[in-house]
Amino acid sequence: QKEVEQNSGPLSVPEGAIASLNCTYSDRVSQSFFWYRQYSGKSPELIMSIYSNGDKEDGRFTAQLNKASQYVSLLIRDSQPSDSATYLCAVKKNYGQNFVFGPGTRLSVLP
Amino acid sequence: DVKVTQSSRYLVKRTGEKVFLECVQDMDHENMFWYRQDPGLGLRLIYFSYDVKMKEKGDIPEGYSVSREKKERFSLILESASTNQTSMYLCASSLGGVENEQFFGPGTRLTVL
Fold this sequence. Notes:
heterodimer, A: six-stranded mixed sheet, 0% helix, B: mainly beta
């Protein structure tokens, strides 16, 4: 089992819909969770971080964390074609400085 | 604004050459990382450093070495480049602590012929 897994893509949604991206992790000592967006040919950029159970909202983005289920998700409301990218889930443990990245989910928002 | 810069966006080298990839960050971050990213394999950690002159192996250190002589600079060295090291190389940095994210440089696309 990989340490961080994401739902396999590609995921296609129509413009204006809600895109739901999921991530599960195996190590219970994981403490911090990050969502990065990566456009083709570019480097990853941070969208959201979340550390506590529950929801965290930032504009059209909502991150949800459930530590008991070892699950973190990213919802994108009112999806736009400019949201088309690969989304990477990253997990950081409460020891060490290392991040573990998931394989990414490719999202396509269709006009 | 955190800035992580990498010495080259594109690099073409020949098999057997020694290759240096440089990364500089301007926000006094303790931690610096080198990844490679390949289609279908995701981001894989090569080496990271949590302090000057300190280094730790990541998941795929074979064929690579690193150097961190100054806090702001982290170099990745391919002692003898091989074609299977053709890849996108990404440098990142972060502050210490659990809640601090990584900031990535623009990447270097290395082709080894």
